[in-house]
Amino acid sequence: MDSIGAQAYAKILENGVQAIEEVKRLQDSGFTREDIYVISHDQNREDRIAEAAGAGEVGMNEEGLFGTLANMFRSRGDELRSKISSLGFSEAEADFYEKELDLGKVLVIAKKRPS
């Protein structure tokens, strides 16, 4: 899944520098801050990369109230799979991406919001 013209786009990157570059590339192609998400297994790292790149965060708008509250009681892996699924990916895709995040990689997702 590596097509910028698609409704939802996801790319696994090796590090934060590559993730920031990818976010900038997506912004140059027409995605806004609210359309782009950076996800990492380490929450602090995720926050730093998202801030540096100018990307949004998966929150209540994407997950809904129940999903956001449930994440408070989930393991980080379960929370990540939930966030990825809330952006329109299947359970199998969310599981695949979460395993890549376990390896220290960074996931950048871009999804156009409905008009």
Describe the fold and architecture:
With 115 residues, the chain is of the alpha+beta class. The chain has one domain. Helix content is 51%, strand content 15%. It is built from five helices and three strands, in the order βαβααααβ. The protein has helices spanning 16-28, 43-53, 60-71, 76-86, 91-102; strands at residues 8-13, 36-40, 106-111. Strands 1-3-2 form a three-stranded antiparallel beta sheet, sandwiched between helices. Helix 1 runs parallel beside helix 2 (43-53). The longest helix has 13 residues, at 16-28. It is globular. The chain starts with 7 loop residues before the first strand and ends with a strand. The relative contact order is 0.24. The model is unreliable at 1-6 (pLDDT under 50). This is General stress protein. It comes from Paenibacillus stellifer. Pfam families: YflT. InterPro entries: GSP17M-like_dom. Residues 11-104 form the General stress protein 17M-like domain.
